[in-house]
């Protein structure tokens, strides 16, 4: 028995602890991708909050006094009004979130694909298995990462609050975690978790399954080989499908997470995800559910390339 143990110690870490290595590598790749694409995420969140009709219930205007801004004007506005570095406001909890979410998602997906479901005889992973595996992996990863996602969304809106003359809610990341925990308890850290995991399930279903399917199709039915061109086309298609499926849940998630709360930590604008959905559609129209679609799509494509 001593010989195999000695030989095992000489193996690379990736072979000795494959799951742990996969988690760490996914987390590192996600951190790099997060830093590079975070301005798109911030822009997306600001777009999702524009024209929030439910604010009328608190005595405000159903529409914002400022005109609606698109993706480019929103990003330029942040730079001009708040400063260039504010494009990365909230990036610290975002990195925390991606280390947990991306690592947990990929490890879960790989485990389900290789161990639970397995590949077919021709080594192809069937579409229905990709759908189930992708959704389950997204749900697990997002549920674990919800507290960091909550802090990220709220910190992304701090710059806008300052411009509106409202007091800032947090002094920093750790103060945000502590304040949310003190006001709402452990449950408060999981505010918005329902639409959050719904979004994760839909995004992963679209992302992972479309990517695998498109790549497999291109390699088998076109002159393209398994190279950067195939990877880019697959990323473009998977990001589009993921954004179409996941953006409505993302809008609802962001609004629930950012809404003002009472002293007990209960939301003042929305009673539930369904209530948020109804108010958005009735007050702003169906397409309000797709606010922030373009930066969301671009970010998914860029993250896929960086990973």
UniProtKB/TrEMBL annotation:
- Indicate how the chain sits in the lipid bilayer: Multi-pass membrane protein
Q: Where are the Solcar repeats?
A: 21-115, 125-217, 226-307
**Subunit-level organization:** Homotetramer.
Q: Which InterPro entries match?
A: MCP_dom_sf, MCP_transmembrane, Mito_Metabolite_Transporter
Which catalysed reactions does the entry list for this protein?
Answer: chloride(in) = chloride(out); H(+)(in) = H(+)(out)
Q: What does this protein do?
A: Facilitates proton transport across the inner mitochondrial membrane and may dissipate excessive proton gradient associated with oxidative and metabolic stress at neuronal synapses. Regulates glutamate-induced proton conductance in astrocytes, shifting the energy metabolism toward aerobic glycolysis and lactate transfer to neurons for ATP synthesis. Can transport chloride ions with lower efficiency. The transport mechanism remains to be elucidated.
Q: Does the keyword Nucleotidyltransferase apply?
A: no
Primary localisation category: mitochondrion
Kindly indicate whether the keyword Membrane belongs to this entry. Answer: yes
- GO CC annotation terms, alphabetical: mitochondrial inner membrane
A Pfam family (short name) is Mito_carr
Record-stated family: Belongs to the mitochondrial carrier (TC 2.A.29) family.
Instruction: Please list every transmembrane segment annotated in the UniProt record, as residue ranges.
Output: none
Q: Which UniProt keywords apply?
A: Membrane, Mitochondrion, Mitochondrion inner membrane, Repeat, Transmembrane, Transmembrane helix, Transport
Q: What is this protein called?
A: Mitochondrial uncoupling protein 4
Subcellular location as annotated: Mitochondrion inner membrane
């Amino acid at each position: 028995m001593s010989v195999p143990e000695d030989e095992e110690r000489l193996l690379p870490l990736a072979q000795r602890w494959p799951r742990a290595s996969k988690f760490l590598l996914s987390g590192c790749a996600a951190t790099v991708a997060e830093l590079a694409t975070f301005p798109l995420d911030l822009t997306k969140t600001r777009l999702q909050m524009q024209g929030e009709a439910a604010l009328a219930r608190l005595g405000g205007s159903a529409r914002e006094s400022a005109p609606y801004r698109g993706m480019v004007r929103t990003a330029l506005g942040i730079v001009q009004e708040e400063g260039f570095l504010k494009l990365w406001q909230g990036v610290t909890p975002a990195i925390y979130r991606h280390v947990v979410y991306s690592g947990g998602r990929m490890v879960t997906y790989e485990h389900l694909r290789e161990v639970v479901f397995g590949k077919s005889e021709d080594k192809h992973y069937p579409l229905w298995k990709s759908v189930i595996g992708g959704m389950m992996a997204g749900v697990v990863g997002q549920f674990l990462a919800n507290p960091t996602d909550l802090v990220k969304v709220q910190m992304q809106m701090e710059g806008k609050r300052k411009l509106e003359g409202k007091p800032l809610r947090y002094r920093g990341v750790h103060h945000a975690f502590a304040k949310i925990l003190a006001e709402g308890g452990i449950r408060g850290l999981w505010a918005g978790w329902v639409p959050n995991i719904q979004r994760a399930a839909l995004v992963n279903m679209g992302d992972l399954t479309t990517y695998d399917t498109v790549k497999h199709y291109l390699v088998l039915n076109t002159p393209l080989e398994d190279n950067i061109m195939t990877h880019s086309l697959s990323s473009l298609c998977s990001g589009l499908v993921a954004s179409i499926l996941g953006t409505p849940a993302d809008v609802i998630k962001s609004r629930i997470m950012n809404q003002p709360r009472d002293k007990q930590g209960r939301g003042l604008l929305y009673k539930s995800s369904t209530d948020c959905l109804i108010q958005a559609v009735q007050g702003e129209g169906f397409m309000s559910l797709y606010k922030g679609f373009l930066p969301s799509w671009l970010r998914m494509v860029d993250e896929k390339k960086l990973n």
